[in-house]
Structures are given as C-alpha cells and as structure tokens.
Amino acid sequence: MSGGPVLDPQGPPLPTTQIMSQWWRDITFVHWPVEPALLAPLLPRGVRPDVFDGSAWVGLIPFRMVDAGVLRGGPVPWLGTFPETNVRVYSVDDAGRHGVVFLSLEASRLLVVLGARLGFNVPYQWASMRVRDDTDAAGARVLTYTTRRATRATPGTRGQVGRAGRPRARISIRVGEPVAEPAPLDLFLTARFGLHTAVAGRSLWVPNTHGPWPLRSAEVLELDDDLVAAAGLGTFARTTPPASVLFSEGVRTTFGFPQRL
Predict the structure, then answer these.
(1) Distance from the first to the final alpha carbon of the chain
(2) Are 23 and 250 in contact (CB under 8 A)?
(3) Who's near 85: CB < 8 A, 6+ residues apart?
(4) Which ranges in the chain belong to alpha helices (H)?
(5) Coil, strand or helix: which one is 120?
(6) Which of 13, 32, 167, 211 is deepest in the core (most CB within 10 A)?
C-alpha cells in the first residue's frame, strides 16, 4: 500500500507577482529512492526531505527550456531556449509546501547560469549540451540527451566522477504510451509547484505554476551519468536501474516572486 502525500496535478495560482515564464519541453523524469537521512543535510534551513513509501527520491531530469522570458514580456531571443539537465530532490516545509531542491542544473547558456546563481543562489553549471530526437523502426520517439560540464567537479567528488573531473551524462530513452491515470508516485515526482533555496542565509520559497503534465511511460535505453555522483550522492545512478521513468512533451510554467520561509 502506497504512502505519501496526494498531490494535485494542477498548479495553484501564483501567490506573488509573476517574474518569469518558460516552456519545459521533451522532459524525461528518471528517479531513484534513497534514505531521507542522505538528503537532510543538503536542504535549506526549515526544509525537510519529502518522502513516499518511507523513501526520499533523487531525480535526474533532462529537458529543453524553450522561450523563457522575464516578467510578463515575450521570449528572450536565443538566451531563452537551451537544453538543461538537473539533479533534484524533493522537499516540504512547515507550511506544507511540497517543492524541489536543486543540487545541480546543467545549462548551455553562460549568461543564464550566472544570472540564476546571482538571483536565486541555485547551483547552475555551464555545460556543452545536446538533445537528439529520433524515431526507431517501430515509429516510437527516441530521445538522447548529452551533457559535459565546462568546469571540473569539486575535489571531494572528483574521485567519484572520473573523466578528468568534468561530469558528463548521456541518457537515451524510448517514449511509450500515454499515462491515462497517473499513480500517486507519478504525481509525487512531477506535481511540484515551487523550489526551496537559500539566499544570504535566508531560506526562500520560489513558487511556480502550470497545468497537469501530459505524462507518458518511457524506457531507458542508455544511462551513463556522472551528475548524481558529482552532487555528492554516490554512484548508485551508474549501478542501479531507476525505479521510475516518465516522459512528457511539456508544459508552460510561470514563476512568482520569492517568499521567505
């Protein structure tokens, strides 16, 4: 019997003024369960690991950011569209807000990396990235996401990462059938409408909202990842098959001004 919060797939109205909007396209959700104690030290003050069936969860999430814009303006040319891959974990605060905490975010636009680090203190990393979209003999979509970070991992993780210390990932998946009725775990891993972070020692909630994900099943064809290890979580992503793999063509999302916890 499953045990975890029952999350609404429809995002709530933004509680604060809109500060940006963007499309998240061709997104793959790859997840592993882990012990909550592994993640607790990595979270901002006032935030604890969110759990399902007694486990915390680590996600490796590659996708395409498309037509990002600031405030209520239109898309920013060139800078607003790029591949991204993040390592994220799931969090809940005392107000009952179920969010994410990013341990790393690879992106191919250096100015975006610098701006996000300065504005929200989220650990963006500049990387060389590509998303390849193919069709197999049966007519199914096959997406391959590749990334190689431009900078070396920290000394404490370099031994885990290898490859001259520059984390890489190659993830190839075959897209399956639509998920007619998402399971509670599917919603737990995808229906997240905000992020927890800390800026200048103050814990913040950054809200976002979007419609329900149009989810599909997916099959991993290749998974060669350094990013989870580079985030300090060990090498299980290289040796353990993921417990959940989902795909979505994407949603448009909007972000609101941060709130203090």
Answers:
(1) 33
(2) yes
(3) 60, 61, 62, 63, 105, 106, 127, 129, 145, 147, 169, 171, 227
(4) 36-39, 110-120, 155-161, 184-190, 227-230, 236-239
(5) helix
(6) 167
